[in-house]
Amino acid sequence: MSRVSAPCLLDRWTEENNAIVDKWKQHRDRGDAVTREQGLTLLKCCYVESHKLLQKIQGVLAVPAHVQLELTVVYNCCLFSFSQTQLTEAEHLLTHSLERGMKHVHTHTGRKHTHLSLPSSPISLTSLPILCAALGAVGCDRPPPNPPVFWCMVLKSLGSTPSLRSCALHLLCLSWALWLSTCRLGHIQELQEELQSLSEGLGAVEVAVERSAVRPAVLVHPRDLKDLLLICTVIAQGAELLCEGRCSEALTVLQRDPSPLAPRELLAQIHTLIGLCLSRTGRPHSAMQCYRKALETDVRCVCALHQSILVYRQLGNTQAEIQALRLLHSVLMMPPATQPAVAPPIICPASLLPGQSLSSLLIVPSPLSVLHSLAQKCVLHGSVSEGVEHYLDLLAALQSDHQLSQGFSEAPSLPRLPELYLEAGSSLLTAQRPTDCLALCDEVISTTLELLPERLLLEEPMEASVPGSPDKLGLGQDRLGVVLWSGAAYLLQGHCYSHLKDWKQAVTHYTRCINLLMKVSVKQKGEYSAWPLEHMSIDVVCLLICVSGGCLDVCWCCVAGCVKLELGVRTLQRLKGMALAGRGISFTHRDQKRESLRDLQLSLQAAPGCASAGLWLTEVLWRLGRRQEAAAFWEKTQSSSTAPSLEGVPLYLLDPQTGPSLDLTDLQRRVEEFVNAQHS
């Protein structure tokens, strides 16, 4: 190629580059005049045209006038590759072109060039994926020898010429974007000084470049790209530190002054992350202020609303929590915003923040999970009618999604479907709608009827994890769940008939519940069989047997399963205690005092601390003429200051708020008169 033709080629290629950029910018500025599909097609076309132009530029011998144009076209090509999520392609193209530029500068300045083992010939569109795959196969998935070292060499080599320094800084912004998109925050940290000085560097070279007559156009102005990268880096670094538990360091990073022109959604994310830092360091009120700022900045920041709910829960502000749950559910149920007609921007914040750390921090529960939490809170805190409606809406939504056949709800945080039916039935009974509760319980019973085992023996669950043995643990847990669901349904039906004062039917259904639960027995085997279950946690038993049997590789997995099994056993005991108490109270109303006394005593053995069983036992003892025992038991009940913990107890296993009640004032008066008479 002769030197005379070089200016002609330079002008032609510059015009071709500018035409590609102008074509895309004109489409972008047209807004809704074109469809999204047309925009994506045009983006793909510009991507291909820019790469073809780069092939032509790199296909001739380099001359000084070509280097700036080539690096500018590389900048645009990499941006187009970025828009097509071709990150590996963009990275290798960037490294290869910078190597060519440094080699040319060193050739014309007489300085020795340090080779980085990259090809000097142009990379075609067809050969680039092959090259990327080959480099990846040998482990070269990053610019050799090391990105910080590489970029120090680039800035040193190209920094002496203002125009080339401008191009180098532009491409440094691109590398920054690639590191963010591939979660390589370590490279950003190592080049922190160079990246922070980009603002002054870009401003200094702009003056020199603007004096030239012909200037190659760029897709995205580097200053705009740099501002976006700064705030995205703050978010990514803060999120990573927060996930590592380094809240103070994360707070320092996140409180850096962002650009006032930063996207509102990113500013809202920063406020939310700062709120998370404050909440985790014991400052919930300050955290609430940050969540409020996030919502004021971007009303679509539902994560801030969700986090504010958690803070209200922590502070015990139930009414505020319920109001926030209502608002969150209404926002999540709004139809999604329609996608803009135009193609998405070349680089968007979502593509720069793909990390799992940020996703885990900004996660928002599904609308069904929020609706379930709202229903529970309303039932437990006085708004029973509203809670019932929410439960019915939840069941209708699950049925419409065809999830009934699986027995599981779609959202992982939701209970299983039979449990949701039981919670809804319990709320209906609390709302004085026993007939509807009976219908829901019938649905649970009919669904689980064929799955009920004849007998269920819960053995040491370690056997299920020993290689070569059948999976008894998983099967046993499923069977236990079926028994508990069916038993709870019979229990609720007993409560319903007690509410209707049909004591015969109440006794019948409580008895069905008890008979069903009696099919389950817990057995311990081996050398630890002499240790009572109530004196030794079942997960500890499991771990000891794992270690003694040499199964160290599976013991911790078994512990997780044992914890679930232990919770199931506790639920079984509470369910049995409530069924016995309900039948005992029903026997009292049928004037079967001895049967009532037996069941109430067994109830307190199965589930100690049941207040209703204790009070009714006092009444039955009094009616049987055993007034000394009644007075002693009354005094014991009243002096007990430790109420049983109901944490983790399902809604349908809480003490019923309807049904037979006892006149405590009259009982207390009788007991006190008897005690005073005894002392006088």
UniProtKB/TrEMBL annotation:
Biological-process GO terms, alphabetical: interstrand cross-link repair
Pfam families cross-referenced by the UniProt entry: TPR_7, TPR_8
Protein name, entry field: FA complementation group G
PANTHER family: FANCONI ANEMIA GROUP G PROTEIN, FANCONI ANEMIA GROUP G PROTEIN FAMILY MEMBER
GO cellular component terms given for this protein: Fanconi anaemia nuclear complex
InterPro entries: FANCG (IPR039684), TPR-like_helical_dom_sf (IPR011990), TPR_rpt (IPR019734)
